[in-house]
Amino acid sequence: MRLVRLIANLGYGSRKDVTALFRQGRITDEAGEVLYADDKVEHAAIRIDGEPLDPPAGLTLMLHKPTGYTCSTKDRGQLIYELLPPRFRERSPLLSTVGRLDRDTSGLLLMTDDGALLHRIVSPKAGLHKIYEATLAQDLRGDEAVIFASGELMLESEQTPLAPAQMETLGPRHARLTLTEGRYHQVRRMFAAVGNHVNSLHRPSIGGLSLQDLPSGQWRQLGPEHLETLFGR
Ligand code: URA
Questions:
Q1: Are 91 and 113 in contact (CB under 8 A)?
Q2: For the chain, what is the domain count?
Q3: Model-wide pTM > 0.85
Q4: Ligand 1 center–CA 104 separation, angstroms
Q5: 133 and 202 part of one domain
Q6: What is the span of the domain harbouring residue 148?
Q7: 179 CA distance to ligand 1 middle (Å)
């Protein structure tokens, strides 16, 4: 790919903006030699104002999403993209979320610009376990785990029952759910279906990947080794 397009696709500006950066001599190699738009150079060797370029296409990251942020590129209120470098919102291909978390849900959110990877993660075939910890408005009744595991629970306005889900009781109003699907507001609707209400919801892990020490609001780029952990190999 020509350098102007490659750099513009990373969100550094329009092709016209990037052409201007070349003209101003702000794009160099590692040694500070000025680069020209038709040079052939490795991504890793390019500097803009002395800084290495953002990661190339194929970027995957995990974000510790705080509550109060929406998984959208445009919406009212705070957006998860505000937690990332501003250029990440301008990339092409688009860096999109792998599934979504509600505005009021915190936890592990994956983002990628790799469409094939995204489909692989959300595919029912992958059967990746998504863990949720819910704090509830009412005490658990005691029959929830059996209902959720039945594979027969039908949520309002759905055509097919939910796949079996595991529930572990952590306290009278505190439960951990393991899901293999990701239907709209699934956890909140599951608890609503058994007469309860989710007060707060957190997702600590997806597949073999967990938030571990990643602080709320922070993100980390994922490499092949993290993807192996995610898919449990
Ligand atoms: N289920 C929900 O209800 N909300 C989420 O954000 C994720 C799963």
A1: yes
A2: 3
A3: yes
A4: 9
A5: yes
A6: 129-206
A7: 11
